[in-house]
Amino acid sequence: MSNYIRRFGDHLIIRFPKEADHHHLLSLSDKIRMEFIKKGVKNIIFDFSDVAFMDSSAVGLVISKSKTVESLGGKAGLCCAKGHVLKVLNACAATGVSQMFVNVEDAMNSFDKKQNA
Amino acid sequence: MEFFNEMTVSFKSLSINESFARVTVASFVASLDPILEDLADIKTAVSEAVTNSIIHGYEGKEGVITIHCTITGKKVTIQITDNGVGIEDIEQAKQPLYTTKPEMDRSGMGFTVMETFMDEMDVVSCPGKGTTVTLVKTIA
Questions:
Q1: Which of residues 18-57 of A touch B (CB under 8 A)?
Q2: pTM of the predicted model, to two decimals?
Q3: Gyration radius from chain A CA atoms
Q4: Domain boundaries in chain A?
Q5: Any catalytic annotation for residue B83?
C-alpha cells in the first residue's frame, strides 16, 4: 500500500499528494484498483488536506472511483477541501457526486452510522 | 506607454513537465503582482491545457509543447501549442464531462475549468497537425 492509501476497516482513505495533477496521480488509480480487488473495502474517502495544487485530473479520479464504489453498494466522501481545491471541485460539479466532510473521522463515522442503521 | 513583455518556452510532452509549465507561467505573470487566487486560476488553466496536449494531442508519444505568453498592460495572454493529432470536433470536446479517455479516469472537465478560471478561452485545431489553446486573463 502506498503512502497515499490507508485502510481503516472497510474504509479506504486516499490522501491526495501536494501536487494533485495528472503526473502525480498516474500510479494512484492502479493502486486504488488493487485495494478494491482485496476483500473488505466498502467505502472510499478522499482526503485533500495536503493538497496545494489541483486540476481536473484529481476530479476524474474522484468521479471514477466514486462511481465504482457506489456501484458496489458503498459510499464515497470528500474531506478537508477548501480554497482553490474546493473551487476546482465546484467548477467540475464534483461536490454533487460525493458527500463533503470536515475530516476523515467525520466521514468514517457517518458511513459507519449509516451502515449500522 | 503600455507595459509589454513576452516569453516563449518549449518542452517535451512529458507529464513531469506539467508542473514546470504552470510554475514557469506563474513566475512570468508574477511581475503584475496578482492576488493568489488569480495566480492559482492561471496555473490550473495552464495545467489543464498542457495535460490535454500530453494525453490527447500526443497520446502519450513524444512531442514538443510550446507556450507563448504575453503581458500587455494588465492583460495576460497564454498560447499553448502542440503538433499532435488535433481535435476533430472542438465544440464536442468542450462539452462538460466529454472525454475520449474514460479508461484513464479523465473527467472531461479540462476545457470547462479553463473557461471558468480564465476571462477568455479559444481553441484552434487542425486534425493531424495540432492544437493551439489561447487563454486570456486581466489581472485586477
A1: 19, 21-23, 25-26, 29, 53-57
A2: 0.94
A3: 13
A4: 5-104
A5: no
